[in-house]
Amino acid sequence: MSKPLKQIHLAAHFPGVNNTTVWSDPRAGSHIEFSSFVRFAQTAERAKFDFLFLAEGLRLREQGGSIYDLDVVGRPDTFTVLAALAAVTDRLGLTGTINSTFNEPYEVARQFASLDHLSGGRAAWNVVTSWDAFTGENFRRGGFLPQGERYSRAREFLATANELFDSWHGDEIIADRAAGAFLRDAEAGAFVHQGQHFDIHGRFNVPRSPQGRPVVFQAGDSDEGREFAAADADAIFSRYSGLEEGRAFYTDVKSRLARYGRRHDQLLILPAATFVLGDTDTEARELAHEVRRQQVSGATALKHLEFVWNRDLSAYDPDGPLPEIDPDVSEEHIARGRAQVRMYRDPLATARAWRELAAAHHWSIRDLVIETGNRQAFVGTPDTVARTIDDFVQSDASDGFILVPHITPGGLDEFADKVVPLLQERGVFRTEYEGTTLRDHLGLAHPDDARDERAAS
Amino acid sequence: MSPTPSAPLHLAVALDGTGWHPASWREPVSRPGDLFTAGYWADLVAEAERGLLDLVTVEDGLGPQSSHLLDPDERTDQVRGRLDAVLIAARVAPLTRHIGLVPTVVATHTEPFHISKAIATLDHVSSGRAGLRVQISARPNEAAHFGRRVVPRIDAYDSPAAQEVLTDLFDEAADHVEVVRRLWDSWEDDAEIRDVATGRFIDRDKLHYIDFQGRFFSVRGPSITPRPPQGQPIVSALAHRTVPYRLVARQADLGYVIPHDAGQARAIVAEVRAEQQAAGRAEEFLHLFGDLVVFLDDDPAEAAARRDRLDTLAGQPYISDARIFTGTPAQLADLLEDLRAGGLTGFRLRPAVLGHDLPAITRGLVPELQRRGVFRHAYEADTLRGLLGLPRPAHRYTTATA
């Protein structure tokens, strides 16, 4: 008997502050004006996507002591945009990244509970951690958190927020006019939390929201990140990295669930992936090459090389050979506020490998950065892309994808119009929303049902 | 700066739960079961916009409502629980076109960096209709929700110890607003250049570190959110006495004050204007709105009877910091004109029962004020600054160009 077809989950990442977004394209619009968000969200909802995703940044990136000016710079506030988008969409899930370092559980919990109420059950929280003093300079508490404590604070932050969400059960508000009873229970929202990072008590002032708790996502590929996701998240964001690596990641993360008493289907694996479509596969490949040239200008290539070399390379010719000098391996890094910097843990070895690679292929600096940088995940005709995505999901390399278009805000249109219908024809993607909440779309149990299930077992 | 005598009167409504009377939720017209839905708030703001009001404020707090000033209570006969005011304002922004949206922000436990980008974004999603009402929290139980500080208990308001606590909290709020305002200015309006030739998305010389260093905050900046459409969204605060008057005078575009008669209005306005002068802002336009709780009915006896009925349900007479008005729209219009002669530029009305008194304001009071020639017949501007007659402020960090 053949395995039943898995249903694919699709989400859309609003293009923004990253080196994928091409702002120089004449079709590129505002990444700040609300009309861009409306267009993008309504396309995602028209295509029956599970959710829209917003990333976060709390300090503008710097390189060589100056604000980095080659990528899109600036973004709006996550909660505010998502609440406004709830007014112009009906079903689309609304997912925001919110840092657990420069926030407090009471405030974040009431913001997410409020968003869940105001969207009729469509809120999701991508919990991330940060610890650096650089970002901390924008906050009253500063950058106090030792790196080693970031996951312990994140886990306790999430656990505390869950205690607050659970402090209302959902049946406290009776609003009985005749009896004069608004609340059934004077203790509604009462909580006490004493832990390593938080010692708080009192009463949470937002009643239980439609989803009980927002859906929780976790991004991050480290061992700690995988463990955090296996214990506490409903979905994990990963990086697209090919079928075999995808399957290995999938198997590893899903295998960790059992030790937390969780089933295989209680954590979704959703890699972020880019796409380039064409009328033929050849045309798509040519377009993809063109997009990479747009993403990596000569100036961007030099700046990217500086992540590894940790030196000012502005004197080099991006169309010339790689620097002969070695990277500076001192602690202080030339680039700040950027996750990619930590990707190159051994800069000397990376530099050596890149020089060899460039020499073997006669690549310039810019060629090298283009060829080794972020590759597009899905390149081809709509049919090729639909088939590849389906293969990926059916062979358990993921449960779906978070698509990262390179054009704001129209970059999702072509996918919605051409690829989604093919996935629907294959019977692997919904043609209508079946439920109203994000938990419904993702096939996740309501936390109250999960509680009942545990109690019954 | 004082308003000119012929200036139009401005009108705001303060939204809170089902209304300001604690028994308001028991009125048949109230919708207590809908308080935690978007539709409830969308309907209220749509009604306020139908009445051409300048703005709505949305109350908030970082703990449950209470019948005590500074401590929680155990009551179950009043509305408890509320949604985040900034998110409510954002949720209704795309559904409205003209009305100003002014959520409450508690400065005592929030990060000015987060507040700055949230209100800047509210301004972006509403195309220039955002403001905030800054508030302090002196409640020990709310401090315990954050666990980062202890707010000393205030027993008698006029004691020197209480004055010290409150002065600190208001000084902190003033610094909070200063950080927020600097962050709004940390991007010049034309910082985004998209210069394809040089590959530069922004002109980094038009982004500015704010480098605020004070007793309560040190914030480096710049903001992550570009300058909001209004440049500076409207900052407002409720003020009852000298210390909060000083916050209004130093940092606000709009203060809500609570005169009980025209003489008091005149005295409050004089005190705030003196503080404004002392703060070096004498030339800046500062609106002062009188706050009033209102029970409005076509028959004054009905309004009084409604108040009595609600007081009976509540088990005690409703008291308020603000004057409680009971009567007809025409009587209220008389009172507003009288109070206004004391130098106020407008009013923020607190409907006793939102479902009843908000439509009474928009459909009764507003036409009455229009007949008297003191209120607008159509929205004359698309931004809140425009409605309040305030110019778009210059940018404090604008780089001198040769």
The CATH top-level class label of the largest domain in chain A: Alpha Beta
Instruction: Tell me, rounded to a whole number, the average pLDDT of chain B.
Output: 95
What percent of residues of chain B are in strands?
A: 15-25%
Strand content of chain A: 15-25%
Number of strands of chain B: 13
Strand order, sheet with most strands of chain B = 1-2-3-4-9-10-11-13
* The named CATH superfamily of the largest domain in chain A: Luciferase-like domain
Distance between the termini of chain B: 33 Å
CATH fold group of chain B: TIM Barrel
The number of domains of chain A is 2
The largest β sheet of chain A comes out as: 8 strands, parallel, barrel
Strands of the largest sheet of chain A, in order across it?
1-2-5-6-11-12-13-17
Q: Note poorly predicted spans of chain A.
A: none
- How many strands of chain A? 17
Please bin the fraction of helical residues of chain A. Answer: 25-40%
Structure notes:
Chain A: It comes from Streptomyces nodosus. The complex is a heterodimer of chains A (457) and B (402). Chain A is α/β, with parallel strands linked by helices. Helix content of chain A is 37%, strand content 16%. In chain A, the strands form 5 sheets. An 8-stranded parallel beta barrel of chain A has the order 1-2-5-6-11-12-13-17, surrounded by 5 helices. Chain A has a 3-stranded antiparallel β-sheet with strand order 4-3-15. In chain A, β11 (215-219), α6 (223-232) and β12 form a beta-alpha-beta unit. In chain A, α3 (105-118) packs across α5, α9 crosses α11 (365-372) and α12 crosses α13. The longest helix of chain A has 16 residues, at 150-165. The model of chain A has no long low-confidence stretch (mean pLDDT 93). Chain B is α/β, with parallel strands linked by helices. Chain B is built from 11 helices and 13 strands. In chain B, the strands form 3 sheets. In chain B, strands 1-2-3-4-9-10-11-13 form an 8-stranded parallel β-barrel, surrounded by 8 helices. In chain B, α6 links the parallel β9 and β10. Chain B has a single domain (10-401), classed as Luciferase-like domain (TIM Barrel), CATH 3.20.20. The two termini of chain B are 33 Å apart. Classes of the chains: A alpha/beta (457), B alpha/beta (402). The interface between A and B is large, with 77 and 80 residues.
